[in-house]
Structures are given as structure tokens and as C-alpha cells.
From TrEMBL:
This is MFS general substrate transporter. It comes from the Eukaryota. SUPFAM superfamilies: MFS general substrate transporter. The chain crosses the membrane at residues 17-38, 58-77, 89-105, 111-138, 150-171, 183-203, 236-255, 275-294, 301-318, 324-346, 358-374, 386-407. InterPro entries: MFS, MFS_trans_sf, MFS_TsgA-like. Keywords: Cell membrane, Membrane, Transmembrane, Transmembrane helix. The keyword Membrane applies. CDD domains: MFS_FucP_like (cd17394). It comes from Somion occarium. The keyword Transmembrane helix applies. Its main location: membrane. It holds the Pfam family MFS_1. It is a multi-pass membrane protein.
Length: 460
């Protein structure tokens, strides 16, 4: 069976565009809620099962390791069968993993929680390949980063709802040493997944294919996807940057509750969980502010600035005691806000026929969240504050990637401060060419002539 016939975001009516955008955006809330609960369960299980901080990071290893293992398969599946069927598979795995939290809590098996978390991670990695890629290509590339930041803002809304629920129900009274509430919360999570799956079954979700995107690019002389996938270096290095960044982000969040308690300024676990939800609110506000900035400023340039800020405040968290360290932690959450979606859109930009495969690779980078928490946990068992030197390394790698993209853009077409729609820019350049400079349609279809055409456009 071949790839499903498709369209591009630019070919959709306004009504179909709004419907598709809204429905896919609902998926971001789904995994934001699961992710927000994960970080709090990390601290809760230390109490219930009497395990160390390092042992508790098995949850992160299972959740984010699932991305590393399953995202490539998800991208191959969707390239062959389309986004909608991929979303069904993702929501099915998500609900299945959540349902099995019930017997794990009933029989108090930490290994059961780790296994269920892996299944949930497989489902969410599939949803991320679908939703991130779909939103990124659902319209002009100029605003891809802004669109994805807006959609992922709802992930942020859900991610602070999780810790707020935990602060009220997980750490109060008898729930502080039991798993009764966890059972009901994850049963509700499973129900949410089932409801969304039913909604997607009955919706008419327009399919956007790599072939359609490639045709749109080729019409204006952008032929990046002529090269094999392994030579799509912006995407390959984007995977490295995403792996490093997500690892850093997850490590920061995994030990945020422990960090605030260990500052020895009278903060309890319940209060720390509430403060952590405020950190997530800061992250979410930063993401929506980022939407406005990304409508004006070049995404790679803005990512470079935010990356530098992340590296600076990660060191501030590691070396600042008391309230100052907590202040640096809140600021770090703010500057993390745009990083994931901007790396994703930069790395998958103009991939054409390689779009879904590239999306799978970048989502695979989420697997970085499996490696950083154990590395940080081994230090946190001795000194939680100094363990924040570990995520600093991830932010530094991301910043190198962002600055490299800025330099590459400057070399090829001049320094960019404002965001640019490359396809529209190419159309304008083509319209400005004299008849003598234009290439005939027959020649345009040939690779060598296409290269000449691109050179003429660049000169113009």
C-alpha cells in the first residue's frame, strides 16, 4: 500500500484549517498532563517505595526511552498509512498503558509502573511524531515555529495541572504514603485517551503528505530533498540538539521538587510540588510570549538567545543557595519554553518528501530524557543543587546548534533578524526574473537545469 493521497496546508479552506489545527492541538494537552504527573510521581514513589533518587529515575528512563525506541517506527508507519491512523495507534497505546496503572497501584509493584510508563511513552511518541509534524506543515513555513509554540502551549497548561493535582491529592494525609489516588487519576487519563480516539475516528482530518510538500517546494526551485535523508544535515544535527535539550529539560524538572526541599528554607514536599506547578505556569506563559516573538524574529536567532540564557541560569541553579537558586530555577523554566518546538521546526524545515522521516528522528531525540536524569540522579543523591551542572551541558549543545544555523543562514543569504517565508520569497524572486533568465518547463524538470535555475534565483 502506498502513501495516502494528500494536500498541503496552503490548499485547505479556512474552516478545514481551523478544525484540523484545533483537533490536533488537543493532543498536546493529553501528553502534557501525563508528563506533568510523571515528575511528581518521581518524588512520590521515593516516599512510597523507599527508593533512592537515582532509582526513581527509572520512570524517566522508561518514558523517554520509549521515544528513542518507538518514534522511528511511528514515522515509518505514518509515512505509509498517514497521520490519522498513526494518531489512533498512539492514543490506543496511551490508554492501554494508563489502564494498567490500576493493577500496578493495587499490588504496589514499582516495576509495573515502570512498564506501564514505557507503554504510555510509546503512545505519546507516536502522537508527537504526528502532531508536531502536522502542525509544522499546516501552513506557511514562515510561522511554523509560532504555530507549534501556540499548540504546545496547551501542553504547558496540562503539565502544570498535573503537579497541582498531585500537591492536593498525592502528598496530603494518608495519600502521602499510599497509591490509592494514583489509581483513579490514571483511570481518568485512560478515559481521556479513549474519548479522543473516538473523536478522531469520526473527524475528517486532511492528510498532508511528503510528496505534496515536495511539489510545493520544487515549484519555486527549493530542491533540498533531492539529497538522500542522511545528507539532510540540518535535521541530523537537529536530532543531536533535541536529544541534548530534552535531556536537560527533563533532568531539571525531575529533581525540581527535591531541589526546593533540599534548599533547607522550610519548603515541604507538598509546597514544593505546588511551586513546581508555578514553574510550569512560568514555562507556559513563556511559550505564549514566544508565539508573539516568533511571528517577528527569526527562530534560529531567538533560539540562540534563549539557549544562552538557559546555560547561564542552569549554572545559577547549581551554584546559588536558597531563594536565589529557586529564582534561577523559575527563570530557567521561562527560557526553556520555546526551545523544543523551535528546534523541531528548524530541523524539519523544507524536508519535502523526507518530512515524516525527519519528524520521527527529531521526536526520537526526546529519548535524551532517558539518559540525563540517571546521570543527574547519581549526583543528586549526594548534592541535589550541584547536580544541576548536568543539564547545563545539554543547553550548551543546543546553543551551539542554534548559533550554527544563524551563521549558516548568514553565509547563504545574509543575516536574518526577521522571520522569512522562503517559499514566498522564492516566488517573488521568480516573478522578478526577466524572460531570458527563466528556465523552460522541460528543462526545469531536469536536475542539472534545476541547479542552474536555483543559481539564477540566488543571484536575483
Amino acid at each position: 500500500m502506498g502513501s495516502p493521497a494528500g494536500t498541503t496546508g496552503a490548499q485547505l479552506s479556512r474552516g478545514r484549517w481551523i478544525f484540523a489545527f484545533s483537533l490536533v492541538t488537543s493532543l498536546f494537552f493529553t501528553w502534557g498532563f501525563a508528563y506533568g504527573l510523571l515528575d511528581v510521581l518521581n518524588a512520590h514513589f521515593q516516599e512510597v517505595f523507599g527508593i533512592s533518587k537515582l532509582q526513581s529515575t527509572l520512570l524517566q528512563l522508561a518514558y523517554f526511552g520509549a521515544y528513542f525506541v518507538f518514534a522511528p517506527f511511528a514515522s515509518i508507519f505514518m509515512d505509509r498509512y498517514g497521520y490519522k491512523k498513526g494518531i489512533h495507534i498512539g492514543l490506543g497505546l496511551y490508554s492501554l498503558g494508563a489502564i494498567f496503572f490500576w493493577p500496578s497501584a493495587k499490588f504496589q509493584k514499582y516495576g509495573g509502573f515502570v512498564g506501564c510508563t514505557f507503554v504510555i511513552g510509546c503512545g505519546l511518541s507516536t502522537l508527537e511524531v504526528a502532531a508536531n509534524s502536522y502542525i509544522a506543515v499546516l501552513g506557511t513555513p514562515k510561522y511554523a515555529a509560532a504555530r507549534l509554540n501556540f499548540s504546545q502551549g496547551f501542553q504547558g497548561v496540562a503539565s502544570f495541572a498535573g503537579p497541582m493535582i498531585a500537591s492536593r491529592w498525592f502528598f496530603q494525609g494518608k495519600n502521602a504514603t499510599s497509591l490509592d489516588t494514583v489509581q483513579w487519576v490514571y483511570l481518568a487519563v485512560a478515559g481521556l485517551g479513549v474519548v479522543l480516539n473516538i473523536m478522531f475516528y469520526f473527524c475528517d482530518l486532511p492528510e498532508i503528505t511528503g510528496d505534496a510538500l515536495a511539489e510545493e517546494m520544487h515549484e519555486v526551485g527549493l530542491t533540498n530533498d533531492d539529497q538522500p535523508f542522511l545528507k539532510q544535515y540540518r535535521c541530523i544535527f537537529g536530532w543531536v540538539a533535541q536529544t541534548a535539550y530534552v535531556g536537560a529539560q527533563v533532568a531539571v524538572a525531575s529533581f525540581a521538587v527535591n531541589y526546593m526541599v533540599d534548599q533547607n528554607i522550610g519548603i515541604s514536599k507538598s509546597h514544593a510540588s505546588q511551586l513546581f506547578s508555578y514553574c510550569q505556569i512560568t514555562f507556559t506563559v513563556g511559550r505564549f510570549i514566544g508565539v508573539g516573538l516568533l511571528n517577528l524574529i527569526d527562530p534560529a536567532l531567538l533560539l540562540s538567545f534563549y539557549g544562552i540564557a538557559c546555560t547561564a541560569f542552569a549554572l545559577g541553579v547549581a551554584f546559588s543557595p536558597g531563594v536565589a537558586g529557586i529564582g534561577c530555577l523559575f527563570t530557567l523554566f521561562f527560557f526553556e519554553s520555546i526551545c523544543y518546538p523551535v528546534i523541531f521546526t528548524i530541523a524539519t524545515k523544507n524536508l519535502g518528501k523526507h518530512t515524516k522521516r525527519g519528524s520521527g528522528l527529531i521526536v526520537m531525540g526526546v529519548g535524551g530524557g532517558a539518559w540525563y536524569p540517571p546521570a543527574q540522579g547519581s549526583i543528586a543523591d549526594r548534592n541535589t543543587r550541584l547536580s544541576y551542572v548536568v543539564p547545563f551541558t545539554g543547553y550548551a549543545a543546543m546553543t551551539v546548534y542554534a548559533v550554527g544555523i544563524v551563521i549558516d543562514q548568514a553565509i547563504k543569504g545574509g543575516f536574518r533578524f526577521r522571520t522569512v517565508d522562503e517559499i514566498e520569497q522564492r516566488k517573488q524572486q521568480l516573478a522578478a526574473l526577466s524572460p531570458r533568465e527563466k528556465v523552460s518547463e522541460d528543462d526545469f524538470d531536469k536536475k542539472d537545469s534545476r541547479d542552474v535555475y536555483v543559481e539564477n534565483v540566488d543571484v536575483a
